[in-house]
Specification:
Number of helices: 3
Shape: elongated
CATH superfamily: START domain
Mean pLDDT: 78
Helix content: 40-55%
Radius of gyration: 38 Å
Largest sheet: 7 strands, antiparallel
Amino acid sequence: MNLKGNQTYNASAQEIWDILMDVDKLAKITPGVSKLVSIGEDQYNAISEIKIGPVKGAFQGDLFLEEKIEPASFTLRVKQQSKIGNADATVAINLNEASANETELSFDGKAKLSGTLARTGQRVLGGVANTLTKQFFKALGEEIDANKSSNEVATPEKVVYVETVEQEINATEDAGIIEEALANVDTTVRSQEKESTEVGFFTWLKNLFSGK
């Protein structure tokens, strides 16, 4: 069974790469996968349930991320076993960045099926592959939008924090200026009072000796 498709997103290649390399997000956006458990570097145990026409089965096996070139490409290899047959797929995934905010994700690969799965008509298999591809592209787009919304919400908080700090610094500087000014005023007043006292004393002595 051939697996092929492409979709363009309003996101950088790095943004999409980070989502695909996050095990929880990868499990969330991959159709049929209910859980991914890390069992080694770039190696996971995958549990999924897929319905192909009248055939439905629970699958379990390994998922590998290979030939990684961040953030441009990697190969996804999956080996799944079930009571209705086994699946062994290898898919090359590429992230082609047209601009800083626009990236085309494309994939091309094949899946080898055995057992009851292999006896299912090619027309049915092709329809299932197209459905899973659409579900994956849609889920990835929603995850990209969710990440952008999260980042936009966080940014104003940082701006407010910076403004608050600047206000505190300005307030502290203003307080220092005011305190210094008050100290200068206090010193001037004390000096004037001293001068006034000294002048009054000498005037009294002069009047005393002059008989006034």
